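Anyone opening a protein record will find just a pair of labelled lines. A complete record is shown below as an example.
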Amino acid sequence: MWYWTKVLFLILLGAIGVWLLYEVVTFPHIWNLRTENPTTTSMIEYRISEAKANGTEPKKFMVWTPIEQISPNLQRAVLAGEDSRFFQHNGFDWDAIQKAWDEGVKEGEKEAKEEGDYDPNDWIPPMPSFKRGASTVSQQLAKNLYLSEERNFLRKGREAVYTYFLERYLTKRRILELYLNVIEWGDGVYGAEAASRYYFKKSASDLTPQEAAFLAAIIPSPLNVFNPKKNPKRVARRQRVILRSMNSVKLAF
């Protein structure tokens, strides 16, 4: 029995070693982002492969634009909608994470009671089918640049590590610049300049506060939940909330 215990332990140790070696070998060169502008991302490649699998022509409209040429209105609107404490945290907004967890637990308890499956003594809180996120701009950037659409603990672990190194190697200004240039803003539309041209036929440098709030309202789900063609009223409601909040966001570069 002791012999087989040692064998199993060594096999497990070896598997962990191989996995760690794989993670090290495949670790992205995040430090290069200080001077290099990405031409594609994991998200973009996923959308391209998704389109090919569906037999449709892949779309990619992306125009890299320095942050100096992106309207401060859009910068403030995006932070108001996605990460109002961007300049105060180190990549993880623990207060927002705790709030999201508490809201998730309450929502889960409500669903469990409605389904007759609630046990107040259960040590694992019932989580709802819809979970509110608390991802910062840095976390979203890590996910967009490097990670798949899978939702599991391994991916979340990688996201946390990548976020840590993004914050370590890059300035807040650079992180926001990268984020504004790579995130999805519609079907095949990536980045602020492409989004501004697509929706308003103008440069991102000329966006008004109302237009900036509109674009920021789309970010969480531009293809579905906050697709302005599918759900214009929902987008308009979020736009109004962001418009009221964005003036309180200071760009502390």
In short: The two ends are 62 Å apart (CA to CA). The first strand starts at residue 61 and ends at 62.
